Amino acid sequence: MAVHGVRIRLPPLRYAQQNAPSARAPTLSPEEEAQKEINRVLKEQISTNQAFIEERATELACPLMRKAPRKVQVRSNGVRYDTPQECKFFGAQARKMAVAADGHYYDFAQITRYVRENMHRELRSPVTNEPMAALVYHTEKDRRTNKLKTVAWTPELYASEEDADEAAAPAAPAAPGATAERAPMVVD
Length: 188
Prior knowledge:
By secondary structure, the protein is α+β, with helices and mostly antiparallel strands. The protein contains five helices and seven strands, in the order αααββββαββαβ. The chain has two domains: 35-93, no CATH class; 95-187, no CATH class. It has a five-stranded antiparallel beta sheet with strand order 4-3-5-6-7. The chain has a two-stranded antiparallel sheet with strand order 1-2.
């Protein structure tokens, strides 16, 4: 008499663990638990850093640039793009800080353009809408000492060089050695 073996078929163990209702989460080694905690702390630090960067960027943003921020390659979340994208945080950052007569910080190019564009009427602060003088303080490197110095900028009186030449024609000749361009006022 021949005895044949009975074949028992069971699902593979990996499928049984996924489908079983009482399947438990795999236990982690102490090293894996430590790495999991490190990853959690790192994610928390990254989100805190991003919030700090955005808050600081808002503080240092030029009020004139907030309305129409420039496009930048890197966003505040660290993502780098191939083509520039508009970013309300980094796109409004001043490239060269300046202080206007109203006491607020602006991008030097933006505030000087604003002053020139609004010279035909009473000049008002872009932030407070109070009257302000057409005076902007910024820093430049001194050519001789290579140190930073504070310089006061005021707008030109004439719209173009041709207008300035026409107005200067009847004036007395300049003293020998005098330069044609106006030197900026240095503030100590």
